[in-house]
Design goal:
Blueprint lengths: L1 E13 L6 E3 L21 E2 L2 E2 H10 L3 E4 L23 E2 L7 E2 L5 H11 L2 E6 L6 H12 L5 H8 L10 E4 L12 H13 L10 E8 L3 H11 L5 E8 L16 H28 L6 E9 L18 H16 L4 E7 L9 E4 L2 E4 L1 H9 L6 E8 L2 E4 L2 E4 L1 E7 L5 E7 L6 E8 L6 E6 L19 E2 L3 E4 L2 E6 L3 E7 L1
Helix pairs in contact: 3-4, 5-6, 6-7, 7-8, 8-9
This protein binds alpha-L-arabinofuranose.
């Protein structure tokens, strides 16, 4: 039995809606086919962007979308992606499959897509192979409201009003695909480039520096010490690999109980990783002015058999749903430092919420969890203590339950629970203190099989359903979680 004690009258700050952010890179079939099909496509579209995907993402309440990479960002020349499509330059996507990129999806299309899905844009600038001037001009092109060479050019290209751009990243994985830099060198470059990311017309750009990959704590230390005061956010990337072996990460759908366990064990590392980076950041920024922006996270498996290895296309099962639920609970817990997180990636790449095949589209188990959880967006984190039984595998142990609690502006309390165990159900006794529970409604996502997933022929094999296996006894809520499940309860 697990116990969750909730102090409903003690709140611990807002869960930033941007924790539910996404990431779209020019990689495989994410942008091309997943989002952009072109105005002349037989696939229904709005100005070239597929209608089914737009509708699904609006429903999901995507708060922020990062683009154009990833590794691609440090090879991207934004000027090649504006103006009449027929005359846009073509380039080779050196990072992802060496395919020819026709630049049909550029700045105007991305910012329009954000408007259509109701998300804030987060642009990732090119430090690896672009100049300071190119970056400065990009910001001017998008946000300058008066008379200027870039603003005039934007108008010639059909957009009169500047866009409101809040989030701008200065380089991506500059320690790796973004330039193989040392943190000292990057810190100076960050300061130089960021100085030219100017605020125009009352805008205030939130500047995000390139942060570490998973366990690279030295990077955080150096960049914070040398450039911390010039940034608003510092990124962090952490991917979940079941085997932790890069050359053979494991299949997205073929796995046993041990690999289920190892995947969840690896994903929970996110908690410690955030804790440690945040502690280092606090050496230089004890007030927590600089946010930790987890702008790439999610599962990374071997690609689906027969697909292009450079496309990073993978299926998405109930295991991914658990990974999503656990990570979101972790981000909530660190809401004092983590102000944005972007799951990688939005369509057809890595842990996607949407998969497409030609004109067909499906919603993955990850989509369903992110939709069930979106009730936490901008809600206040509520103080809670969890006492969980252990989930054991070959001598390794994890907490069987993951939980998070928030209260929204309508005073509805939401409790998100994950039962990590592949085979055992769990009773969770929830002691609600400091408020009277009148009624409870709940939704669950679960299935018989660990690798249950949606296919284009069976798109609703894994879907949320109303959940009723709980009872309210005075102010104690007793919930019987099925094995391998994610449950969200609304307490009024
Ligand atoms: O999301 C795929 C890739 O993973 C990104 O391009 C890069 O930033 C990271 O290594």
């Amino acid at each position: 039995m697990a116990q969750l004690i909730i102090n409903a009258d003690v709140t611990k700050g807002k869960i930033d809606r941007n924790i539910y952010g996404h990431f779209a890179e020019h990689l495989g079939r994410c942008v091309y086919e997943g989002i952009w099909v072109g105005e002349d496509s037989p696939i229904p579209n709005i100005e070239g962007m597929r209608t089914d995907v737009i509708e699904a993402l609006r429903k999901l309440k995507v708060p922020v979308l990062r683009w154009p990479g990833g590794c691609f960002a440090d090879a991207y020349l934004w000027k090649d992606g504006i103006g009449p499509k027929e005359s846009r330059k073509r380039m080779v996507n050196i990072h992802w499959g060496g395919l020819v990129e026709n630049n049909h999806f550029g700045t105007h299309e991305f910012l329009r897509f954000c408007e259509l899905i109701g998300a804030e844009p987060y642009i990732s600038g090119n430090v690896g192979s672009g100049t300071v001037r190119e970056m400065a001009e990009w910001v001017e092109y998008m946000t300058f409201d008066g008379e200027s060479p870039m603003a005039n050019w934007r108008r010639e290209n059909g957009r009169d009003e500047p866009w409101k751009l809040k989030y701008f990243g200065v380089g991506n994985e500059s320690w790796g695909c973004g330039g193989d830099m040392r943190p000292e060198y990057y810190s100076d470059l960050y300061r130089h480039y960021a100085a030219y990311v100017r605020n125009f017309g009352g805008s205030k750009i939130f500047k995000i520096a390139c942060g570490a990959g998973s366990y690279e704590y030295g990077w955080t230390d150096t960049v914070m010490s040398m450039a911390g005061k010039y940034m608003d956010g510092l990124s962090l990337h952490h991917y979940t690999l079941p085997t932790s072996v890069w050359a053979d990460k494991g299949s997205s759908t073929e796995f046993d109980e041990r690999l289920w366990f190892k995947t969840l064990q690896q994903t929970i590392e996110m908690d410690t990783i955030i804790e440690k980076h945040s502690t280092i950041m606090s050496k230089y920024d004890p007030e927590k002015r600089v946010a930790l922006i987890v702008d790439e996270w999610g599962t990374w498996y071997n690609v689906e058999p027969g697909t292009n290895p450079g496309f990073l296309y993978q299926q998405n099962t109930l295991r991914d749903a658990l990974v999503a639920g656990i990570n979101l609970n972790i981000f909530h817990k660190h809401n004092d430092r983590v102000k944005m997180a972007n799951i990688a990636q939005i369509v057809n790449v890595l842990q996607s919420v949407i998969l497409t095949e030609g004109g067909r589209m499906l919603l993955t188990p990850t989509y369903h969890v992110m939709e069930m959880y979106n009730v936490h967006q901008d809600a206040l984190l509520v103080d809670s203590t969890l006492i969980s039984p252990a989930y054991e595998s070959e001598g390794d142990k994890l907490d069987q339950i993951s939980a998070s609690v928030s209260v929204n502006e309508n005073n509805v309390m939401h409790i998100s629970l994950c039962n990590l165990h592949h085979a055992d159900g769990a009773e969770v006794r929830i002691d609600i203190r400091g408020r009277q529970a009148e009624s409870v409604q709940a939704t669950a996502l679960t299935s018989e099989e660990m690798n249950a997933h949606n296919t284009f022929d069976e798109p609703d094999a894994v879907a949320p359903s109303a959940f009723t296996d709980f009872r309210l006894e005075r102010n104690e809520l007793i919930v019987k979680l099925p094995a391998k499940s994610v449950v969200v309860l609304a307490v009024r």
